[in-house]
Write a structure and sequence with these properties.
Residues 145-262 form the GFO/IDH/MocA-like oxidoreductase domain. This protein has 365 residues and is an alpha/beta fold. It contains 12 helices and 16 strands.
């Protein structure tokens, strides 16, 4: 049961599908409570609360502005279409609301900078809604990548996140509309691919980006399938593919000088509902243990237990940071702003490379 004296009270702007998962995460986290839901109509907000079994005590509002005006709301989760993020995140920051912002966080780095400047100017905490980085498996994978004896030095990483939602999605979804989520698959699934690459590279930005020829855009110019390579000055490289046109795949492969790491469910562990996630790693150190009939060592499977789903852990960590600001007078943690901005910078560069007929794009801060 949350302690009311140190509980972070959440408001949610919008009734998107992802809002259901986050509302339940807010109710489940030990340091948060769901205070309010706002939609473009009171009827929609009321129906959302009822249909999803949310507590009757949750306040419902017929506008996003009303949530921001509620003095009993400490923080807001914003799952609105990406094109609306800059408007509502800035307004939220100006009203002193801490911000958990769904990814992709903005249409471009310039918009994100406006959001981050508003957050810093008003002393509010910022975090984006990339859930998988909060799973304990992610920390264990970083330990594996950092093991110089087994893994060596990271040389290359590939990520792939695709799904095929069908023609109705491509025709009607906001993710295919330039005025709503104009980054398309690059923003929706490519964000995860880029974040995973930067995470593995300790968030060191690449020197350059080169999108692969053959990106597919819809009739309105929204990217629905693309890929890219990323290059670092020290010779490390990465590739990724994201798409709305291929079978569902959530893959990461990282290769080091002495070992490798692989997983096939990096954004959402297959077995998280059972309380764990797995990943595989292998090393040249295992060659002395090769089983008969194999040409290489069998990969080691690592099972990482978790006390709660990753969305709950994300909400808890965000609320912990908010609590330090609200209850103890500390300054907001800037790490998450830096990580989001670097992800956005690379995403922008990939889009620019596509727009410029697949030219190399130099990364600039």
């Amino acid at each position: 049961m949350a302690d009311e004296k140190t509980t972070v009270r959440f408001g949610v702007l919008g009734c998107a599908q992802i809002s259901i998962k986050l509302c339940k995460a807010i109710l489940r986290a030990p340091n948060t409570t769901l205070q309010a839901i706002g939609s473009r109509s009171l009827e929609k907000a009321t129906a959302f609360v009822a249909q999803n079994g949310l507590p009757e005590a949750v306040r419902v509002y017929g506008s996003y502005e009303a949530v921001l005006e509620d003095d009993q709301v400490d923080a807001v989760y914003i799952p609105l279409p990406t094109a609306l993020h800059v408007t509502w995140a800035v307004r939220a920051a100006e009203r002193g609301k801490h911000i958990l912002l769904e990814k992709p966080v903005a249409m471009n780095t310039a918009e994100l900078d406006r959001i981050l400047e508003a957050c810093e100017g008003n002393g509010v905490q910022f975090m984006d809604g990339t859930m998988w980085v909060h799973h304990p498996r992610t920390a264990k994978m970083k330990e594996a990548l950092s093991d110089e004896q087994r893994f060596g030095q990271l040389k290359w990483i590939h990520t792939c996140l695709t799904y095929n939602p069908g023609p109705e999605f491509l025709k009607h979804s906001i993710r295919a509309k330039p005025d709503l989520d104009g980054l398309g698959a690059l923003g929706d699934t490519g964000w995860y691919c880029i974040r995973a690459i930067l995470w593995a590279m300790n968030y060191q930005l690449p020197k350059s980006v080169l999108a692969f020829p053959g990106a597919i855009l819809n009739e309105e110019g929204v990217i629905i399938s693309c890929g890219s390579s990323l290059h670092w000055e020290d010779g490390r490289s990465a590739t990724f593919h994201c798409s709305f046109l291929s079978y569902v795949t959530f893959d990461v492969t990282a290769l080091g000088t002495k070992g490798s790491l692989r997983l096939h469910d990096f954004t959402l562990p297959f077995e998280e509902n059972l309380g764990y996630g797995t990943f595989y790693e292998s090393s040249e150190l295992d060659f002395g243990k090769i089983e008969p009939g194999r040409w290489c060592p069998k990969p080691n499977e690592h099972v990482v237990e978790t006390e709660a789903p990753q969305e709950v852990l994300m909400v808890k960590e965000f609320a912990d940071l908010v609590g330090k600001v609200k209850f103890f007078g500390e300054k907001p943690e800037k790490e998450w702003s830096v990580v989001s901005r670097k992800t956005q910078i690379v995403l922008d560069a990939v889009k620019e490379s596509i727009q410029k007929n697949y030219q190399h794009i130099e990364i600039k801060l």
